[in-house]
Amino acid sequence: MLPTTLAQWQTYCQKLSKEGRAFIQGQYKAAQSGKTFDCINPANSEKIADIAACDQADVELAVKAARNSFETGTWRDMSPKARKQVLLRLADLMEAHKQELAALETLDMGKPISESLSVDIPGSADVVRWHGEAVDKVYDEVAPTPANVLATVTREPIGVVAAITPWNFPLWIACWKIAPALATGNSVVLKPSEKASLTAIRLAALAKEAGIPDGVFNVVPGFGHTVGKALALHKDVDSLVFTGSTRTARQLMIYAGESNMKRVWLEAGGKNPNIIFADCPDLDKAARAAASGCFYNQGEVCVAGTRLLVERSIHDAFLEKVVEAAKSFKPGNPLDPATNMGALVDTGHQASVLDYIKVGSEAGATLCLGGKAPTDTGAFVEPTIFSGVSNKMRIAQEEIFGPVMAVIPFDSEEEAIAIANDSDYGLGAGLWTGNLGRAHRVAKALRAGSVWINNYNDGDMTVPFGGFKQSGNGRDKSFHALDKYTELKTTWIELG
Ligand code: ADP
């Protein structure tokens, strides 16, 4: 029986084991330096666990373990059906440990327990299952060559994959990378964010229990400038997959160029427009979706609809609806099953979000809702809405990664498109209209990897996810994800 009250969750969490060591060659290991850092619960600033502060020496061990396992073929050469069975077992184990994984996620990064339980953990298991199920259903190609030739086009695993992942959906985004990497026969070294490492570390033991051979899946916790940098510069890492900030993404491209030209695949945030036309068929639905599209997960979502573009003729009435919808997001104890908005990941990030709110006010935007930390303890920020925003303002151009919405009026379809595309980013975009022609026209004109019409941020494993422009390259989810983890080989056979 799952806990149903705050008190029950708190009791459960006190007893929960919180492993913080690295996982290399099938075993938990302290950092070779013996160093650790504190893992802090952002809802109350209490220490939860010690995390291994790994560095270059631990990265060396992990990459060597991954390389050896790849070269010996313990996983790579397993039949696709056998690899599928292991991944399906892993998905089952994740679901069986749903309560534990959800509690670790919520304690570590502050999201509501109800969402960890209903979204993050089942979503993560679904990713592993989807890629597992696909393994023995993907065929290679025979090229339409002249009759005296047989040419095959095959996908081969790329080798050692390093995954550097963020803290907003720690387990889920890690699975977006790990699952296709493993499904295609690679060996993996995962570096979770130093701000949320617990579920990735726990996942390693579940993967071993599911039957992933030792050395094939390693987890090295630690900081970006130590573990992340060492992985990105490592000459024996073949592919580097990343989700995080644009600043780090740029750096990773440099590291790859300075080392071995490893493949680099980046998802690096967004400043996503959500456009409400006056002919939107259901303004109430659009207002609810605009609020949840911006404030879900405390606004710590790369694809959050943080720029709300509203046609001037409905601007005031729509703004009122969005403010009302946003009021339903109430920051509270993340372990309380009734909470729908948790804490930000840490107090440093809280300070950065509050600073952006100050920047917005100073630039002349009108604060319509929120704007403060609601409590003295914990990294909470109220859902915050600014109206009267110009797209040139910093709050409309920079990724705040917190619960802050910038409302921008527009007068025509052309102007809406121009404002929407006036951004360094191009991850997601929404548009709401009852006009079919306009829906297609605007969707085509938007420079974004995902466009949602009359909804915001829906999706599942069947559709790819990733960005245009400085939102990155490559795609997670769906068969398109396999591009990151495989090389294409053509074999040209002379038939005589
Ligand atoms: P955020 O500011 O949201 O934490 P980051 O881009 O800093 O976003 O973090 C995303 C991931 O990138 C984390 O795992 C982090 O440790 C890692 N990282 C940060 N800086 C570097 C770096 N210089 N080299 C490699 N990895 C890094």
Structure report:
The chain is α/β, with parallel strands linked by helices. It folds into 2 domains: 281 residues, Aldehyde Dehydrogenase, Chain A, domain 1 (3-Layer(aba) Sandwich); 197 residues, Aldehyde Dehydrogenase, Chain A, domain 2 (3-Layer(aba) Sandwich), CATH 3.40.309.10. Strands 14-15-16-13-12-18-19 form a 7-stranded mixed sheet, with helices on both faces. The protein has a 5-stranded parallel sheet with strand order 9-8-7-10-11, sandwiched between helices. Strand 5 and strand 6 form a beta hairpin. The longest helix has 22 residues. The radius of gyration is 23 Å and the shape is globular. The termini are far apart. The protein binds adenosine-5'-diphosphate (ADP). Adenosine-5'-diphosphate binds next to helix 8 and helix 9.
If you average the pLDDT, what whole number results? 98
Assembly form of the protein: single chain
CATH superfamily of the largest domain: Aldehyde Dehydrogenase, Chain A, domain 1
CATH class of the largest domain: Alpha Beta
Helix content: 25-40%
User: What would you say the CATH architecture of the largest domain is?
Assistant: 3-Layer(aba) Sandwich
Overall SS class: alpha/beta
Q: Tell me the radius of gyration.
A: 23 Å
Query: Could you name the ranges where pLDDT drops below 50 across 5 or more consecutive residues?
Result: none
**What share of the residues does DSSP label as strand, in percent?**
15-25%
Number of domains: 2
Brief digest:
The chain contains 15 helices and 21 strands. By secondary structure, the protein is α/β, with parallel strands linked by helices.
